[in-house]
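Ticket opened by: R.M.
Priority: normal
Category: complex prediction / small molecule

The reporter submitted a protein together with zinc ion and asked that the result be attached to this ticket for the collaborator who will pick it up next week. Submitted input follows.
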Amino acid sequence: MDDNRYSSNRPRRKVSRRTYRNRRLAALAIIGFLVLLFVILIANACKDKGDKKSSSSGKNVTTITTTTTVTDPSITTTAPTTTAVTVPVNESDFRLDKQTVSIMVGEKDMPRVLEYPDGTLEADERWSTSDPSIAVVDSYGHITGVSPGVCLVTLKSAADPKQEVQIKVTVRGSASDNDSTTSPQSSRAEAPAPSVDDTEGLTYVNGVLLVNKEYGVPATYAPPLNSLCYEQFSLLTSAAAKEGLKIYICTGFRSYKDQEKIYEESVKTYGEAMADICTASPGHSEHQTGLCVDCNTADSSFGYTAEAAWLEQHAHEFGFIIRYPLGKEDITGRQYEPWHIRYVGSKIASRIHNSGICLEEYLGVA
Ligand SMILES: [Zn+2]
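Result attached by the on-call engineer:
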């Protein structure tokens, strides 16, 4: 405290009028220089912003590109364009389960659409890629890695072109490329392994939630009946009604506890072996996903009704599949259930319906 050099009782040094004026001029010159520097920096930043169309992260990118050019002329050509892809910001009403995808060359992945903008249906999805030499995307949203790099895949709504969301796709070289850089990706692309994604105890295979004897859901997982599933089911029932048929929900969502009770009852009545064929054990019922519906009476007599025949023919048009078809019992592990329909979206449903396979076969996990 006592050696404070700036205390008020410190004697002031006498300064001549001339040095005082010189100091003032020097100070003014410094301030002027700083103002000029500031103006140049602002002008530079505005110019670069105009060049790049990047929405939010432009400030980070601009400083990098200006500094690198001076040092080594041989390096400058490679860097700038590939680093410009940043994680996109979704300002539309599309809601996806992920906005970044990281795959190997030849691998596939598919972001799932959890919510659509008002007035947009699954059939209105329009997928495109910013660089087909890095990754391609089909009309269903399956993204396949072509060569290492980063690009953007865009999902637009045909019903409302203002609604679009982008997915940042990073493609890495396949594992075999590390050993021999000369071999192309064609050998691996023939039969891509199903991409199994286990998040929070839920198993998605190529983006489709899979629940069967092998794959279950946690006891705490209790979503309501999926809104898209419900909307599509309503469309289905109206279409059936036009033909004089009555299809209604017998069971939609079922909780872990409900399933536990049903399974215990079934074991008591039929014994464990038979119960396993007729009833899913708790955690392994598709009804716990909120993505399926049991129609009408949910028993074998339903199979003889006109409604069952109509479902068999038309359910896929609304995005549903007969989840446990006749003749596939050894693969699904369940008896034929003509009343149990599962929502997978009309594109996948049509493929499954037209090829006569079951979901496990379609997903490559049979
Ligand atoms: Zn069912």
